[in-house]
Amino acid sequence: LPIVVANMSEKGNLLKIINGDTSKCSIVK
Fold this sequence. Notes:
This protein is mostly helical.
């Protein structure tokens, strides 16, 4: 994946964690 896409993906995961959506985050992993 391009670095930019990976960066956006990681930022999205961080936002999910901050929002308390840890279940989806673990499913993505």
